[in-house]
Amino acid sequence: IFSIVVFGSIVNECYVNKDSQHPELLCIFNENESACSYGIAVGLIAFFGCIFFFVLDLYFQQISSVKDRKRAVLLDLGFSGFLAFLWFVAFCFLANQWQRTTLTRGFAQGADAARAAITFSFFSIIIWV
Description:
two-stranded antiparallel ribbon; 5 helices; elongated; Marvel; mainly alpha; membrane
C-alpha cells in the first residue's frame, strides 16, 4: 500500500508547471527528473514484487521440495533486504531534493504530495526491514 502512495502521489501531483510562462511539466523535487523517476521506479518494483510474493505465498504449500521452499524463502528475504535498501536511498534522495526546492506558486500545489512521498518512503524502510 505504501508503494502505491509513493508512486501514485509522484505521478499524480509532483509534475507541475513552474509558472504560466513555462508550459512544460517539471518534477517538483528541485526540478530533478531523476528524483521523480527513482521514486516511481522503486514504488513500481515494490508493488509488483509484493504481487509476485503474494502469489508465491498462495502456492507455497504446494511446493513439495524442501530445497525449493528454502529457495523461495531466501528469495523473499533477499528481496525484502534489497527493497529496504532501495527505499532508504529513495527517502534520502527525495528528502535531499525536497530540501533544495524553492517553492514557487506553481510548485506549492504539489507540496503535500511530495511530503507524502517522502514520508511513506521512510515508513517503507521500516516495513521492508
